[in-house]
Amino acid sequence: MDFKPNTSRHVASISLQPPSYANASGSTVHIDSTALPLLKRLSLRRLLLAPEGLREPHWHANAHELGYCVRGEALVTIVRNHAVRDSFVVRPGDMFFAPSGSLHSIRNIGPAEAEFILAFSHEKPEDFGLGGSFAAMTPAVLGNTFDAPTAFFQEIGSITTRPIEPEIVHVDGEAEIELQALHVDALKYRVETNLPQIDAAAGSARQTKAGLWPVLEDIAMYSVRISDVGMREPHWHPATAEMGYVLEGRARMTILDPDGTTDTYELQSGDVYFIPPAYPHHIENIGAGDAHFLIFFDRADPGDIGFRTLVGSFPPEVLAATLRVSRAELPDFPFTEQDPLLVNRINPIDPVA
After folding, report:
1. CA dist., res. 79 & res. 283, Å (int)
2. pTM beyond cutoff 0.90
3. Using CA atoms, how far apart are residues 249 and 224, in angstroms rounded to an integer?
4. Which residues of the chain, if any, have pLDDT below 50?
């Protein structure tokens, strides 16, 4: 069955979005509130870096950045307040956190193209690049700053002749990897090498949240794999928005909107979806093999309420009245003390529209 382009207001596709910036050294594709107007407090970018490509040192004025390495090998350097510097190597399944305002760069140090999914805690992140920031200052101002004559900085140009936008550039030569870059760092998290918090026939979930990674602020991520016999149960997040990226697989999602209408759509690799806080929704794998989602939240400790546990919070007569059935017709719901997040799909898949 052919997969048709999505028309849901909740979904945008990185595959269909033109690059926001591209040259021989790499490219970026932005899914922000321009591409997906429903977004609030979250957005996403895909960064590709060719060998020796560099996402130049830059910072975001209004957003934290949470990065996930999909493939390749890169050196991430982050500079925070009072010249505190973190530098570390990331490989597939590794993550990094760059606090808002921190200067950071991503340098491809491997022989192949590197790919990153980057999430931000704002629907429209503001970027400043180090190159453009230098160009905004006159040669005399830069000379005064570095105890050098004006002539030393005259080739840098001015804000009128150089772009301010952060760029991807080529760096000649092999990167020098410091010993500290191979050690544990507070801003790095090896999510895919950690044991999953949930591991069952229905799938698995590896969580990055403040309780496990204390440095996080205003953003978190779950790496969720739903097996071809599994489903993410219907649920909602009382105070948390959700933005998901489909890394691989094919799935279907249903969202209930406040006006009582439902939005059901299919998802495939490269799709991004967004769900405002407290909107009920579920995810069902409708393909072969696992469906792998990177699910981002606009809080460092997201919470949720699942259908499986909530039925135990009310007496049967209340549930019967609510569901418009008699007490005798009410299903014998299983008692569940803790939300399973993922449930087995024991029934056939509903027909695909």
Report:
1. 38
2. yes
3. 12
4. 1-4
